Structure formats: structure tokens, C-alpha cells
Amino acid sequence: MPVQQTAPSAPQDKQLRSRVRLFGNLLGEVLASQAGAHVLASVEKLRKGYIRLRKVDDPALRRRLAAEIERLDPDTLTHVVRAFNLYFSLVNIAEEAFLHKQRRRQARKGGPLWVGSFDHTLREFHASGITPEQLQTLLDRTLYLPVFTAHPTESKRRAVMHNLRSIFVTAEQLDQPRLGKEERAGIVEQLRNQIQILWKTDEVRVRKPRVEDEIRNGLFYFRESLFEAVPQVFRYLERSLRRVYGEDTRIDIPGFLHFGSWIGGDRDGNPFVKPETTRLALRLHMREILCQYLRQVENLRSQLTHSSRLFQPDGAFRDSLEADRERFAGLLGEHPNRFDHEPYRLKLYIMRNRLRQNLRLTTERIEHPADADPDSFPHRYRDEHEFLADLELIRDSLRSHGDAAIADADLLDLIRLVQTFGFYLFHLD
Description:
- The protein contains 14 helices and three strands.
- By secondary structure, it is mainly alpha-helical.
- It folds into two domains: 156 residues, no CATH class; 172 residues, de novo design (two linked rop proteins) (Up-down Bundle).
- α9 crosses α10.
- It is globular, with a radius of gyration of 27 Å.
């Protein structure tokens, strides 16, 4: 079956060029106002000259451009190098956003998707005669484990990565339909300000990063993208399974995705990694994932406002909640009758307070490791399996009274995060 490719058509290519031109113009404005017109003139002369060289090789022009670079004083040369570095970062953002938009457009059409997508792969499986039972066996045996490492040549700071992501997110707003003239002008001004901030931000560290810095840099990607992306991966797979194998075909998607890292654990590759460094890494990882779980439990607590006057949870959930009331009465504080008629909110309130004890213990182990006492947090979850069991109780109860669609929304996303990250975030090698 022919598969649609993502090569841009002429109108789409025009959109990409327009976005690159916008970024280039905004960078030019920043250079003129912050570095001076002479810097902008040098950048433009070199940019246009090397564009001509790319089209037609001209040894004489190449020599003139090299001589132009030689004539630049050190300060101007520094500005020119930084300008080109920032320009190519902006071009990369434009290209990534363009490809992302193309794929979303392709997905909306409902036809076959790009090579390597779940949709394309499953269509090949189906065409090859792989049955749902065989596919289930394959999924049950699947493990995908990307591993993070701190490459010695990676010098980009978290501040720079954060600013580049902000530009990406802001630029996406320009693609909104029916965007008014004033709204567009406001977004463009915001982009200009973000580019100006990036221009005035150190691109590289002034000192060699410590192992602790590398650990925190690794966490950046989880916080900024992976916590959102992981549930989306499973949702894309789920939709593709239904589309290719049919709505009525039951195929369970196991938690086949996990992550690994060498950062903070690779004693062979980094002589500065000590036992205490590894302990710190493990605790920072745990704190990061606990904070994410707390955010999502709070979100669920605001959503699942079901009243027991209007429905009845299933027996397993009722038994669990009654046991929680007795075992964790201290977590209810001065309002033991809080959420009396909102069983899911009560359950999630208790879960939140238990997670907070996990977080407080982990924070103490980071900040005051000698004084951290697990017995001071008796209501914490012993492991992720206890937490996951509570989430699955809520899911099963929701499904029992006709709320399967609600169970399979944000709650399922959190369940899949726990299946992926546990209480450890990733495996440390």
C-alpha cells in the first residue's frame, strides 16, 4: 500500500521559508539594536556570499569572504559567530515545527501515515497476516529502553534549551486559524523579545559542569517533554491498533517503554562519580517523578467529583476506601468528613498526602541525608506498586458504572506514566 510521505509541497515549502524569513528578520532587528549595524552588515554580507557559493562555486568569492572574516576585530567576530549560531538554531526550530505541523495535518486526514509510525508498521503487520493474538505476544515481549548519557561535547546550558523551547512554543501560536492582526503582532513581538533574551544569554558554561549539573540537565528533558510525550506515545499506538485491527479487537498494551541513564552512575566513564554521587542521582530522580505524580493526582482530584448520591463505586474500591479511612485517619487532619459524598476525591486526597510523605522523605535524603528517618513518614507508599494499585482501583470502579471514557483519559495517562517511570524515573547503569 503506498504511504504518504512528508516531503513538502510548494505551498508548504513557502510556509517554511516564510517562518525562516521571519526568524531571520527578527534576529536582524535584535543584532542592529543590541550589537550594532556594523555587526548586522557583516553577518548579511557573509550570509549572502556563502549562499552564492552554495549555488555556484567561485574560488575568488571564497577568498574574498575569507579575507572579510580575517579583517573582523575580535569583538565583532565573536558577535558574528554567535549570530550565525543563533540563526541556525532558529532555522532548526522552524524546520522542526514545520515537520510537526505536516505530520499533524497528515494524521487529521485519517489515511496511512509516514514510514516508521505505529500506523504504518501495524498496516504492514496486518497485510503480512499477523493475527491479534500474535501481535499481543509480540507486544508482551517488547522492551524499548532509550538510555541518556552526558556527552562530554554537550555544552548547551539548560537556560538556552529552555529559551529555544519557548520560541518553538510561541511560534506555534502563529499557526492558529483566524489569527487577528493585533494578535499576530503581539506574538511576533514576544518572539522578538525571546530572541533578544537568547542573544544576551551565555550559550556555554563558564566552568566545566559537575556531575550534579549533568544529572539536573538530564532531568530537563523529562520535565519539558517526556512526561507529556510518553502517554501520547501509548495513545497513538492505541488509536492505530483500533484503526488497523478494528474497534472490537482486544489487544492490551503493556508498559513496554522504560528509560535508562549513565549520568551519575558511570564510574568507568567519569572518575568524579562516587557512591554519594550515585545516591544523589537516585534521589533527584525520585523527587522529579514524585513531583510529577503529585501534579497529576491534584489534577485528577479536581476532575473526579462524582457524588455517591448519584452513583455507587464498585465493591473493591469501597473496601479500599474504608480501609484507608481507618489506616490513614491522620492524613485527613481536622476535617475527617471531608469529601464524604465524593469517594474518588477522598481517595485521591489520601493518595496525595501519602505521596507528599514520599516526597518529604526524599527531599530530606537529598538535603540532610544523615538525619532522614523513614519512620517519620509512616503513611508513605512503600513502592510504586502500591500507588499503581490505588490508581487501578479508581480506573476499574469508573469503568464499572459507565465511566470508561473518563477512566481512559487523564487517569490512564497517569497509570502509564507509573508503569513507565515507577518511583525511580529511569534505570541507572
